Amino acid sequence: MKRISQHNQLTTPNNVCNNLAFHRWLTEGIALEIHKDGNSQGKQVWLIDWNEPSNNEFLVINQLTITHDSPKGKYKRRPDLILYINSIPLVVIELKNATDANATIQGAYNQIQTYQAQIPQLFTYNAFCVVSDGLEAKAGTLSADFSRYMTWKTKTGDTEAHRHEPQLNVLIQGLLNPVTLLDMVRHFIVFEAKKTEDKNGIIIIGNIKKWRHIISIMRLIRQYYQPSERVVKIVMRMTPQKIILVTKKQASFGILKARENPCQWCSIQPKSCLP
Q1: Taking the model in full, what pTM does it have?
Q2: Where in the sequence is the domain holding 133, given as residue range(s)?
Q3: What is the pLDDT of residues 83-95, one digit of tens each?
Q4: 85, β-bridge pairs
Q5: Exposure pattern of 251-269 as b/e (b: 16+ CB <10 Å)?
Q6: How far apart are CA 65 and CA 2, in angstroms?
Q7: What is the CATH number of the domain that holds 149?
Q8: What DSSP character marks residue 262?
Q9: Which helix (H) or strand (E) holds 186?
Q10: What sign for the dihedral angle of Cα 104, 109, 114, 119?
């Protein structure tokens, strides 16, 4: 990852911009030029095998210590859980104790915000953040405020989970199922960029963030339109209110094939810090 980061300059002060750049390489591939025997040849490199999920490595690491040197000092933080796919930290999970009255899901969200400020390099690669207090469980994106974190409502995509089912179990078996997570990362993450024009007529692209409203809508659509239909593409018009849904049958989306080749997470204990 360091070699790719140095080559493509994932070092801007804006972590969401870094996240956008990495997400493009993750989902569109990385174009490299290979020089051999005096000849140059272009090659597309993929960090994840999207077509065969079982070819990827899925790891869960508990309490990994991550350090970061900043002008304000040296920080050392240990997120509760980090989910890696092919060594890429795509999901950060913060858990609170349900028996502690002072440990709330809002507190878990606040801790995620602290991680973003103090160990920002972890979130360059982040797709989703998950927070739970043992009773509630929600998932959100890098730039989402707490109100945009959503409860996942189905384990299989066929039916809505029973309302008494622990929310964290539903989220783990639903969103964090390796095949579903790959699907979400590749097809269901959208970024928003604000375009402005200065007094000289120069167009400036800024304030990039993951589109929280659309992500929320997409999650709800995805959960309630399975398995008969699958949301494949969302076309956005001039305003978020004008949305066209283009759907395909589930079989054409490759999910049934994926279910025939299930993937599992492997849990390991950290042995060293991630600089």
Answers
A1: 0.74
A2: 51-224
A3: 999 999 999 999 9
A4: 58, 88
A5: eebebeebeeeebebeeee
A6: 18
A7: 3.90.1570
A8: -
A9: helix 178-187
A10: positive
